[in-house]
Automatic annotation (TrEMBL):
Keywords attached to this entry: Iron, Metal-binding, Oxidoreductase
Domain of life: Bacteria
PROSITE patterns cross-referenced by the UniProt entry: 2FE2S_FER_1, 2FE2S_FER_2
The protein, known as: Aldehyde dehydrogenase iron-sulfur subunit
Entries under InterPro entries matching the protein: 2Fe-2S-bd, 2Fe-2S-bd_dom_sf, 2Fe-2S_ferredoxin-like_sf, 2Fe-2S_ferredoxin-type, 2Fe2S_fd_BS, Aldehyde_Oxdr_Iron-Sulfur, Beta-grasp_dom_sf
Domain 2Fe-2S ferredoxin-type, chain residue ranges per copy: 3-79
Gene3D superfamilies in UniProt: 3.10.20.30, [2Fe-2S]-binding domain
Length: 170
């Protein structure tokens, strides 16, 4: 079965005629031509397809487009402020946080969501305060744990962690 779906992507409502089985990832890439979001494993294991859904990170390959109708979807294309790149985009460049770049859009979207989670006090497996009563200090171990759902086949992790640490610090 198919029908019209209204997706709010990067601040703009987009009406798409989709089969109900189309994933958010495929709607973004194939129907809206927003190819920054990458299809890696298509099983929610690599993080290449990470987008922000109402400000929280989500694997777009695991979500049906019809299920996110009416919610705010932000892709890597929607992060810049006009011609000014998002601070994490600038930091990834400055710290060489990418090699082939395939995972980079998902890494950046995940990092933005992760920074919001840490600021809200949400703990990870390595957080000292598991009750979540205070903002989390994002040291390298904390960043690596929180970003563990995003894989980089090239191994640019040192630059990724440094970029996130820079933005988290100020």
């Amino acid at each position: 079965m198919s029908g019209d779906v209204v997706l709010r992507v990067n601040g703009e409502d987009r009406v798409l005629h989709l089969d109900n089985r189309v994933t958010l990832l495929d709607a973004l890439r194939e129907h809206l031509r927003l190819t920054g979001t990458k299809k890696g494993c298509d099983h929610g294991q690599c993080g290449a397809c990470t987008v922000l859904l109402d400000g929280e990170r989500a694997n777009s390959c695991l979500l049906l487009a019809v299920a996110v109708a009416g919610r705010a979807v932000t892709t890597v294309e929607g992060l810049a402020d006009g011609a000014e790149p998002h601070p994490l985009q600038r930091a990834f460049i400055a710290h060489d946080g990418f090699q082939c770049g395939y995972c980079t859009p998902g890494q950046i979207c995940s990092a933005i969501g992760m920074l919001a989670e840490a600021a809200a006090g949400l703990p990870s497996a390595v957080s000292a305060d598991l009750a979540g009563t205070a903002a989390v200090d994002l040291d390298d171990e904390e960043i690596r744990e929180r970003m563990s759902g995003n894989l980089c086949r090239c191994g640019a992790y040192a630059g990724i962690v440094a970029a996130i640490r820079e933005v988290a610090g100020g």
